Each structure stands twice: as structure tokens, then as C-alpha cells.
What does this fold into?
Amino acid sequence: MCGVFGIRSTERDVSRLAYFGLFALQHRGQESAGIAVSDGGRLTVVRDMGLVTRVFNEQQLQALPGELAIGHTRYSTTGANRWANAQPLIHHGPVRTIALGHNGNLVNVEELRSELVADGVQLRSGSDSEIIAAFVARDPAPLPEAIANTMARLEGAYSVTALAEDTLVAFRDPRGFRPLALGQIGEDWVVASETCALDLIAAEFVREVRPGEVVWVDEDGLHATQALPAGPNALCIFEHVYFARPDSRVAGVEVHGSRVRMGERLAREAPVEADLVIGIPDSGTPAAIGYSKASGIPFNEGLIKNRYVARTFIQPDQAMREQGIRMKFNPLDEVAGQRIVVVDDSIVRGSTMKQLVAMLLDAGAAEAHVRISSPPVVSPCFYGIDMADEDELPAAHRSVEEMRQLIGATSLHYLSVEGMQEATTLPEDAVCRACFTRDYPTSVPERVEKLRFEPAQV
Ligand code: SF4
It folds into this structure.
């Protein structure tokens, strides 16, 4: 996860537009937020822990004048949740200084880091993103070429926005794991993780940054080069299942539509006699609507969500996650005496669903039939999602019946891999679905420790 944004404009207030862009991308990361601006020579960055609205105020935005801006919202996959890992990060190299925001995760980070350290490069953060910055900052080639050279060294997932030498740059790994959209507002160019950020600032979507492509915007306008051959494509299918905002278009397909179709298909694959369909708000709602449409069972709200609590899955530790769930959901009287179909997009760690089922039964629900609009998550993600250990994934070593017992549901069914795929309308060879199938599109490390590059005390 993480959200990235970038803009170049001589006319517009770029830091304010970056702020709005990050506001639209808040769902991609809530641990920290930051904006870096350049006024044509000097790079300034403001970054801090917390939500975009907490990190920035009017005074700070006014103190960030410039013609180029990038922004970042973070949730950690490599490196701890601490200030030094907040982005955009700035790296001063022997050739250039670069500010960079990264969405994704590198899989060959050990060897790259060792090479830099052996060459005496000082790395200040525990994240893999600084490694990308460090390679670009020491490459004597012109900037686009230095980026292409760096990309040739990287394995894994990266959708990046960066500022260097009065130029806005965006680049994406050759498999296109994470989305990256290119838009235009008047004559000015904008890049963002998702199209919803373009919509918010009234920018028009032009196209996606292609897998393996580098685009850069300087005083002469937009330039692009295919730095590495694209493919085989491996867009994260979880973007359609859960991560992306429903009003975004990812790979040309509106995410909300995918989720409704997942629910419709789920109703056909796993029907049940029931009185009411409810969704776990907000991410389960579109699939619940689809389930209701296809089954004819009425849809209604059953759980009220406190929207001022951060998303549980993207908070960094289990204790915080459990507290978060109780703060977040409360059942309605509506559920009492009813046989309920409870629809959610996924079960990752299982703790949320277990507590929600107990909550609904305590509130008087007669039955709680859980329907999940994606297959069981059985394997870790190495491409930017925080589920790095199979031990954290209860479905990895349990049957569906054992999972049902674990969460305490009356019945449990998951959507099939084929059903999920068809619902996205994307071809099978265009996506990564490795956490459901164990079929990874790249070589992967045996085990990954999220904090492996952190100092002992942080
Ligand atoms: S492993 Fe799963 S979460 Fe990770 S990129 Fe692939 S589909 Fe997405």
C-alpha cells in the first residue's frame, strides 16, 4: 500500500493540490503523510506521523511554495512505523539530491542494501524506498537514464513519484503491481496512485503510467520512455478486492463495479436461505449489494461504522487492531431475530470477522452466514501489502470448515479464484493473485522480517 502523488505547475498552488491528492489517497496509508516541493532548485519537505489532515495545516501549506510537488501517505511493509521512515524521503547523493515517494516493496533489497553499505552510502531509514533514491542519486547518467539504470537493478513492486533537478518523475515496475495514473489539469501534468485523486482536483485522466515506463515533466512538458520491457503484467488483484477506493478505475475498470460483480457471483456460488444481507462497511458494502441483487434477499445496514477510526488492516500491530475493531463497529437492532448473510471482501488475519460475528449474535441475530467476496488468503504478499508471514494468515493451514469454527459463523463460503477473476473483467495473465494461489510472478525471499533494517532500539 501507500499512496503517491506528483504535480508540476507554474500557475497552480502545487502543495495545496498535493494535499488534496493525498486526502483522496488517505485510505492507502494512515501511518504518516508528507509533501516535498521544489521551487526550481531548493527541495523542502514536510512529513510527520498521522493522517494528512493532522500533518498539514494552512501555515505549513503556505510555507511550501514551488512549481513541483510530490506527496505520500504511508503504511509500512518494510521498516517500522516511525518518523524516519515517513515519506517523501530526501536523499543527497554525490550526483544529485532526490525526493522520493514509493508504493510497493522490493524483493531483492538485501543485496542492493549490502552493495550500497559496502560503498559507504549512509542510509538513514529502515525502508527499502531509500535504496531506490540512493541508486538514482549516485548515477552520473542524465536523470531518466539514471532511473532506467536503477530500475534494471530492482526486483519487486514500485510505483514511484520523485523530484530531482527541477523535474517531476514517475516510474512503475515492469509488472505494474501497483497502480499509477497520469492526468492533466489544463496544461499541467499530474500523477497519482489512483484516479480518485485526479477527480478530486478536477484533473482529467489521460492514461496509466505503463509497467516499465518512466515519465518525467520538465519545463518542456511531458516526456516518456519505456525503460524496461513491460510484463508479464501482474497488477495486484487485491486492489480490486479491497485496497483501491471504489470510485477509482484500476487498469481501466471501476473498482466498485468489480466488487458488486464479486458479490453477485458469490451469491450464485454460495447461496443460503436468509432474511437479510448486510455488508461490513465500507469495503464489504458493494459485494453485499451484489449478493442481495443476485439472491433476491433484501440488503440493509446491520453494522454502523465510526468513520473516524483508521482502517484496522492497515494498522501495524495486533493489539491496536483489536482495540480498533471495538471502536469502529456497532450493530443495529435491525439484526435481532434475523438470519443474516454477512458479506465482507476478505479475511486476512480473521480477528475482525471473529469479533463482528460475536457482536451480531450478541445483538440477537438468529444466524450469521459469512460470505467472503475473495478466496482464502493463504500466502504472504511480497509486493507491498503487510502480511509478510504465513503464521499470521489463519487460512494458510486451515480448511474452510476450520475457518468457520475459528470465526464462530453459522456457515462460511469464499468466492472462487475464477469467480474473483471474472468479476474484475481483467484477463488472468494481467494480474497477480499469489496470496490466494501461491503462484508468485517473481522469485521471492524465503522469509521477510519487516523490521530487518531497523536499528535495535526505535
Ligand atoms: S500477493 Fe496478493 S496482495 Fe500481493 S500483489 Fe499479489 S495479489 Fe496483491
Summary: The two ends are 22 Å apart (CA to CA). The chain is about 30% helix and 25% strand.
